[in-house]
Amino acid sequence: MKNKNKRGYSLVEVVIALSVIVIVSISALSIMLSSVVTKANAINRSHAQSFADNVWESFKAADTQDEFLSLIAFSDGVLLTEGVTDESGKTIYTYNSVENKFTAEIAVSYQENARPELELIVTDKNGDEIISFSYRKGDGI
């Protein structure tokens, strides 16, 4: 005669219960990780925007290229790579953030008989453009 008051769980019940626990846990971890990545991207974008604003303000305040570089170094403690002059006369500087979260390419032109120009392109570590703008100083502005 079989004991009808059997105690414990069958192997099938245990496997099903563990499967449910694993699926719920993986779903919860995925949601948490995507939230962390989104927050990190927002912080990196904020740093890039702050950097771009400092570059723009430094450019507006500077009257010469050397003054511009000094103001950037003072405002952010940023040291740019050695500038390379292209065929249009713009000097192009590159800056990589300390954490390598973004890269900025800054092209400036302080030519005689022309208004100073700034072109700034900031990209993230994947090469996607975050910020891009051009600015030409106005008369007295």
Count up the helices. Answer: 2
Portion of residues within helices: 40-55%
Fraction of residues in β-strands: 15-25%
What global shape is seen? rod-shaped
- N-to-C CA distance: 100 Å
Describe the SSE topology.
Layout: H1 11-61, H2 65-76, E1 84-85, E2 91-96, E3 102-109, E4 117-124, E5 129-136
Helix pairs in contact: 1-2
What's a concise summary of this model?
By secondary structure, this protein is an alpha+beta fold.
Characterise the protein shown here.
- With 141 residues, this protein is α+β, with helices and mostly antiparallel strands.
- The protein has one domain (11-136).
- It is 45% helix and 23% strand.
- The chain has 2 helices and 5 strands; from the N terminus they run H-H-E-E-E-E-E.
- It has helices at residues 11-61, 65-76; strands spanning 84-85, 91-96, 102-109, 117-124, 129-136.
- The protein has a 5-stranded antiparallel β-sheet with strand order 1-2-3-4-5, with helices on one face.
- A hairpin with a 7-residue loop joins strand 3 and strand 4.
- The radius of gyration is 28 Å and the shape is rod-shaped.
- The relative contact order is 0.12.
Question: What labels would you give this structure?
Answer:
single chain; alpha+beta; 5-stranded antiparallel sheet; 141 residues; 5 strands
